[in-house]
Amino acid sequence: MSARRPYVRSMDGWWKRDAYFISYMAREVTAVFVALYAIVLLFGVVRLSQGEAAFNGWLQYLTTPWMKVFHLIVLAVFCYHTWSWFNIMPKTMPIIFFGGKRLQPGTITGTGLVASVVACLAVLLIVRGMS
Amino acid sequence: MADTEKIIEIQVLRYRPEQDKEPVLQSFKVPFTDDMSVLQGLQYIKDFLDGTLSFRWSCRMAICGSCGMMVDGKPKLSCKTFLREYYPQGLRVDALAHLPIERDLMVSVEDFVTKLESIKPYIIPKEPRTLEQGEYLQTPQQRDMYEQFSSCINCMLCYAACPQYGLNPSFTGPGILALMHRYNADSRDGGQAERNELGYADEGYWGCTAVGYCSEVCPKGVDPANAINQNKMASAINYFTRFITPGGAEK
Fold this sequence. Notes:
The complex is a heterodimer. By secondary structure, chain A is mainly α. Chain A has one domain (17-130): 3 helical TM bundles of succinate and fumarate reductases (Up-down Bundle), CATH 1.20.1300. Chain A is built from 4 helices and 2 strands. Chain A has helices spanning 19-49, 52-62, 65-92, 105-130; strands at 97-98, 101-102. In chain A, helix 1 (19-49) runs antiparallel to helix 2 (52-62), helix 1 crosses helix 3 (65-92) and helix 3 runs antiparallel to helix 4. Chain B folds into 2 domains: 6-107, Ubiquitin-like (UB roll) (Roll); 110-250, Fumarate Reductase Iron-sulfur Protein, Chain B, domain 2. Chain B has 10 helices and 7 strands. A 5-stranded mixed beta sheet of chain B has the order 2-1-5-3-4. The termini of chain B are far apart.
């Protein structure tokens, strides 16, 4: 008879075990906030379809103190979302050679971050131009 | 020698299946010098304090991949980790996380070895050549496509760093998938179709959620997270096109 009795350790609370896992879970949780904000915007579209008064009411609601706090939280979370996903992006890409040299992970992350900042500024400018 | 002898406390998670119902911590006071690795600390315990302590080791220079363990909760090669980094607070040593403990610091490697065999970790020549035809030629850039992934020493630190493997051991896991990619990415190899069956399965590339810690802890710079995730695109394309390509659905 075998004397082997391999012991399997529990995975309970695994994500609290290492700071790396906590930052990973934080990255995953940001998706919930993205979904929440999508619902807020979707609600705006619904109000828009109900006419000008309804839409203005929604705009008014966005300026209430509670919604301002919500927006600040969402902004902070979105910043982490953007950084953390572009940070993992190099892992998802094949090995790329550029002019005979291998494209470095930092370049991929940096390009993504610059692109997102440029996109945000462009949207801001367009919205400014319209109002 | 100028080094004065210091004493460090090493807590070791013991598990002796014949007497312990579950793993228990045991503490040892180990005299050490600045050039001593955690592995040497364990060897001191085995030689002078408790000969029943079990752990694996061989080369002492980060080549063989035998001495992986959790040092203060982080997956490390104990030969490549130094006691001085944990002085004076001391350290705790556990068997590699996510793997069944066989005895003390030794984990079961059965699952790993079975999976390793299953992925055909050898070159399946694209075109068979005779000796007279000479060697298979490869450009430096073709070599660069797989070289880092070929540095794997099967130490399983990446498995101890992968919560997805811990939660679901049927996941093929970082190290083996990186080795699968190593052969698939080799210009001399023609075995992709055979290996992709495993790679494209739920237990293959898709079991990975890009935690990325495997690449962080790898002592050889293999970057398993990259090896795995760069295949998801090809797998997704395969998934959606297999119904429209002739004979694709049977694959």
